[in-house]
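Minutes, structural biology subgroup

Action item carried over from last meeting: produce the structure token record for PHF7 protein (Acrocephalus arundinaceus). EB confirmed the sequence was re-checked against the source entry. Recorded below for completeness.
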Amino acid sequence: FLVEDTRSIIREAAKKSCFICYKMGASITCCHTGCDRTFHLPCAPDGQCVTQYFGAYRSFCREHSPQQTLQPRPSQDNTCIICLDTVEDNISYKTMGCPACQDARFHRQCIQALALHAGIAFRCPSCLNQEPFMTEMLTMGIRLSKSAPSWESDQEVRPSDQRHGRCDAAMCLCPGGREHVEKDGPWQLWLCSSCAAEGTHPHCFSLGNSTYSWECNTC
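Output recorded by EB:
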């Protein structure tokens, strides 16, 4: 049944056009009632779409994405607290803020990178608040990691010449098995774009031809 369900999802996605890149194979639909916009996951940042990586894993187009509501800043320092580059004056998809201290501002890309590296220690880099801050970031589409902080990891680093070589999808559909890899087509192996420690055959994870990257469930 799972194989047939996967094939059904692939067939339905093949009929839908991404409202961002206009190519077919869009498998994600905005969950707002009455909205039928569909898009590819890799296109989401360009279209300012939000996917919430918890609970029901809901996705929203840019028109219906959740918005942060913060008080005016106590300070006028328009600097990202993480990379120290300039941020926008106002809160937007690309510029976010801490709901606890109401003052910290950071780029979406910067706070996303911090979330993946910090793991269970993820918190506001300014006031160090964790609970309200983490809840807000999840709501706004920031992916969190359940692993220990990268700076505390004692795992042995994988040698650079040893590339991960098997499909880790929940159900591998490849006739040749999880370790069968081809140079092109549905049975090539895509590694997680964040950790490169897990991989999948595009066909096993319903990745269309218009998809250019993939991330594992851990990341």
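Discussion: The domain at 3-64 is CATH 3.30.40.10 (Herpes Virus-1).
Next step: EB to file the record with the rest of the batch.
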